[in-house]
Amino acid sequence: MKKIVVLTGAGMSAESGISTFRDSGGLWDKYRVEDVATPEAFYKNPALVLEFYNIRRRELVKVKPNEGHIGIAEMEKDFDVHIITQNIDNLHEQAGSANVLHLHGELMKVRSTADESLIYELTADKPDINIGDKCERGHQLRPHIVWFGEAVPMISEAAKIAEQADIFVIIGTSMNVYPAAGLLDYVKKHIPVYLIDPQDVRTSRYDVHHIKKGASEGVKELRKRLGDLVKGR
Ligand code: APR
C-alpha cells in the first residue's frame, strides 16, 4: 500500500465550525497570541489562559468531523494514511483515522505544570480546568498544548513520517508556523504534493497540485485524482 502523509491545519476543521487563526475574523483577530498562547501569558495571567482554552473545549465538544475528516479516514481502505496535524481538536480521531500525530498538543488533554508526564484526559461533560485544579502531586494543571516559544517535541517523529511519504497532502494550513511548515522540506523531491485550500498558499515547492477548494469538496477531488492515478487513467 502506498503511504499517504497528510499535513493538516485549522482549515481542515473550519467546515465543522471551528475558527481558523489567520483568516479575517479568525482567532488571532480576536485575541493576541502573547496574551493567551505563550508560557509568559500563563505565568502572568493563568486564569485568562485557562479560560481561553476552556472556551475552545466547550466549542469542540459541540461539533463533529466534517466530510473532509471522514474522507481522509476512509482513504485507509486503499492507502497507508498518516496524519500530522497542527490542530488541537480530536476530529480526525472522531472520524476514525488510526494514525494521528498532534504537533501542537491536544485540547482535550491537560497536564501537570510540575511533571509533564502526568497527562489527564478531560471529558465532554466536564471540559473546563480552572485555577486550583491540580495533578495527583498537588500542582496546578495546564493545557496539554505547545505554546509559542515552547519546543515541539513531536517534530522529529513527524519529519521521519514526512520523509517516508509516497504522496504528501497539505490541507487547510497557511504554512506560516514553523517548524510545522518546514516538514514539506523532508518530503522526497519526486513525491507528488497536493494542496487543498480555497486560498493561495506559499510553499517551498513549485510543483504542488493545488485543489482550490474547501476541505470537504477538496478531499473528494483528491480521492478521485488518486483513484485515477492508482488505476493508471
Ligand atoms: N477548507 C480548507 N482550508 C481552509 C478552509 C476550508 N473550508 N477555510 C480556510 N482554509 C485555509 C485558509 O485559507 C488558510 O490557508 O486554512 C488555512 C488556515 O490557516 P491558519 O489560520 O494560519 O491556521 P494554521 O495554518 O493551522 O495555523 C498554524 O498557528 O496559531 C497557530 O498553533 C496554531 O496550529 C496553529 C498554527
Give structural notes.
The chain has 233 residues and is α/β, with parallel strands linked by helices. The protein is 30% helix and 18% strand. The strands form two sheets. A six-stranded parallel beta sheet has the order 3-2-1-7-8-9, sandwiched between helices. Strand 4 and strand 5 form a beta hairpin. Helix 6 packs parallel to helix 9. Bound molecules: adenosine-5-diphosphoribose (APR). The site of adenosine-5-diphosphoribose has 24 residues, from helix 1. The site of adenosine-5-diphosphoribose (APR) has 24 residues, from helix 1.
List the helices and strands and how they pair.
Blueprint: E1 3-8, H1 11-14, H2 27-30, H3 33-36, H4 39-44, H5 46-60, H6 67-74, E2 80-85, H7 91-95, E3 100-102, E4 105-112, E5 119-121, E6 141-145, H8 155-163, E7 167-171, E8 193-196, E9 209-211, H9 215-230
Parallel strand pairs: 1-2, 1-7, 2-3, 7-8, 8-9
Antiparallel strand pairs: 4-5, 4-6
The protein binds adenosine-5-diphosphoribose.
Defining traits:
binds adenosine-5-diphosphoribose, 18% strand, alpha/beta, 233 residues, 3-stranded antiparallel β-sheet, 9 helices, elongated
Regions with little confidence, pLDDT below 50 for 5+ residues: none
How much strand content do the residues show?
A: 15-25%
Bound molecules: adenosine-5-diphosphoribose
Number of helices: 9
Number of strands: 9
Helical content, roughly?
25-40%
Characterize the overall form: elongated
Distance between the termini: 18 Å
List the helices and strands in order. Answer: EHHHHHHEHEEEEHEEEH
SS content category: alpha/beta
Mean pLDDT: 96
Profile the largest sheet. Answer: 6 strands, parallel
Rounded to an integer in angstroms, the radius of gyration calculated over CA atoms is: 18 Å
- Tell me the strand order in the biggest sheet: 3-2-1-7-8-9
Assembly type of the chains comes to single chain
